Amino acid sequence: KNITAEPSLSNWTPGYVDYGENTEHNCLILVELKALAAVCMAISLCGLVGNSLVVCFLGFHVKHNPFTIYVTNLAVLDFCMLLLFLLLMLAVLSFSAFCRHDSISLYLDFVFAAVILCQYIHINSLAFLTAMSVQQCLDVL
Q: I need a surface site. Which of 31, 54, 66, 89 has the fewest CB within 10 A?
């Protein structure tokens, strides 16, 4: 049939045409990215152990002065940042392992929240480093 009312519909074919029935969904995460995520997880675990030791040592076994309080706060922020990286890499690996495309929006929401938290923690870490530097300069004067 030809439809003469609309020129764009002149090649109209009756019936149902499914354009997506022969497509395969592949995971978008490469093997190299999985290996990088595993290495980042290992480094994050080592950093978590080191920062927890610093927090325990400076928090409970050393006399508190302003410098040790700054370093303890910096270690806590670094611990939170490494924990966030660990969770992010775990999300990457779990997404690539299960390859579920119905959870992409949840994964992207988690990545967005992780990026915002990462920026907040990074800014706080820089503020503590600035405070430590100012305190050391004032101690010298």
A: 31
